[in-house]
Amino acid sequence: MPTTIVVGGQYGSEGKGKLVAYLTHSNRVDVAIRCGGPNAGHSVSFNGRFEIVRQVPAAVINPRTRLLVAAGALVDPSILFQEIRRFGLGKRRLGIDGFAATVSRQHKELEARLELRERVSSTLSGTGAATASKILREPRLKLSPLIPWLDC
Q1: What is the 3-state composition of the chain as percent helix, strand, coil, each rounded to the nearest 5?
Q2: How far apart are CA 74 and CA 77, in angstroms?
Q3: What distance in Å separates the CA atoms of residue 32 and residue 89, rounded to the nearest whole number?
Q4: Distance of alpha carbon 55 from its chain centroid, rounded?
Q5: Is residue 76 part of a domain?
Q6: 103-115, pLDDT tens digit by residue?
Q7: Is residue 52 part of a domain?
Q8: Residue 133 confidence (pLDDT)
Q9: Which domain holds residue 58?
Q10: Structurally, how many domains does the chain consist of?
Q11: Sequence-ordered strand ranges (E) for the chain
Q12: Residue 32: CB partners within 8 Å, gap ≥ 6?
């Protein structure tokens, strides 16, 4: 079974989402996995529509592709549920590993207090602070069983 992996070697903005959307649109892709977090997002165009996806894989454009968010990925529940509603996703199509971590309100507030937008071009999404919590194994980092119906 052929496998294609799209990896970014920078901090982002390399076009990973556009490439995944293109591959998904032009090939039969059974499963797409998102490993990152909900920062700036991926912009994709299909069927005359322009969409920005920040939480689910850019392969959402192909209704036959199973979408997964991997262990270690970051999940912002508010963004996730917006995208679930927008794309009409359910548990047959979308799975989230129970070891994905949740971006909390506290992570967003920490980034805002540190004035990261100017210093490191932060999106202030809390992704950087949540990643730091993950690396430091801080107790405030919650894993995603808060969304048990989406478990892979």
Answers
A1: 35, 20, 45
A2: 10
A3: 14
A4: 3
A5: yes
A6: 988 888 888 877 6
A7: yes
A8: 86
A9: 16-101+143-150
A10: 1
A11: 31-34, 42-46, 49-53, 66-69, 74-75, 94-96, 101-102, 142-143
A12: 20, 24, 57, 58, 59, 65, 66, 67, 68
CB 57, CB 100: distance < 8 Å: no
Residue 56 lies inside a defined structural domain of this protein: yes
The neighbour count for residue 91, using CB atoms within 10 Å, is 14
Q: Determine, yes or no, domain membership for 11.
A: no
CA distance 15 to 36: 14
Cα 49 to Cα 132: distance, rounded to the nearest angstrom: 35
pLDDT in tens, 17-66: 777 778 887 788 899 988 888 877 777 877 777 888 899 998 898 889 99
Tokens matching residue 96: 């989230």
Q: What is the CATH number of the domain that holds 92?
A: 3.40.440.10
Q: How far apart are CA 109 and CA 126, in angstroms?
A: 8
